[in-house]
Amino acid sequence: MNIRERCESLVRELGIADASDILSVEPLTGGVASDIAKVDLGKRTICVKFALPKLKVAADWQAPVHRNAAEYAWLKVAADLLPQSAVRLFGRSEAQHGFAMEFVSGEDVYLWKTSLLEQKPNKGEALLVADMIGRIHQKSSQSGFDTTPFQNRDDFHALRIEPYLSATAKVHSDLSPHLNELEDMLYQSNQVLVHGDVSPKNILMRSGGPVLLDAECATMGDASFDPSFCLNHLVLKAIHLPATREHLLKDVVAFWQAYATHITWEPPTTLESRVCRLLPALMLARVDGKSPVEYLNDAEKDIVRAISKSLLKTPADTISEFANRVSADLKEMNT
What we know:
The chain is α+β, with helices and mostly antiparallel strands. Helix content is 49%, strand content 13%.
């Protein structure tokens, strides 16, 4: 079926509307793991999402389509815990591995990635995102939280560990011991509910707060992953954007401080140490893994390689030290 036919089938199955009520179906770009479309039903507009078995990247990257269920479950957790900012949900089809949700729009809505790359004034986005992730992690670490929908470590391995760490280890064999240790750490942990893709490209900002989408990697896992994944994007943009570098590196520290207030499941310093080890691995992965960022030029990629290798071989003890070392290395490189 084409995307329109899939949308017609989904809205009919979920009882949202009849196929004849659909005025238009507009495929949306930006994601690599799913087919996403904006569906105009006349009186309202919704967004539908179907998981793909092969991601839309150059490398051969396969992933199970049942991950769509964990994504929907993560969105429900966020909606229950943070209703003022979470996306509204309209139902999911197990048979079609697809679901329907609110199409987030409005004059106050903007994509955090766009704001960062266009170097717009800082509105405290990093602190808001850190607070949201921290709240979800804390809630999921408590007794009584239903972890059943999120026992997806093999899906997480296929979507995150293999394409980011395993693939990068093949390119940088000298770093294999460091990267393999991180792989084992992430695969074995069952600490908190991990979103797995806390990237500015997945975060819409609106007056109620950040709306975090694309939870296809959701799993019970190591708490270091989500903050590391988000901080990675801030560090890479600090390398790419000299004019806002100082502010971005300050946001790295502020993000961690806001997130750390929610850590109750282990000593914050213990988790901070793991983030300091994982973060440079993810930096390197966004250059030499299966999902490289699109905005870095060749010179900037070499800078990322040099800084991340140094921080992998001799990790920082704290996020503040991490940011200071990145800043000092960039000044030494005269970039």
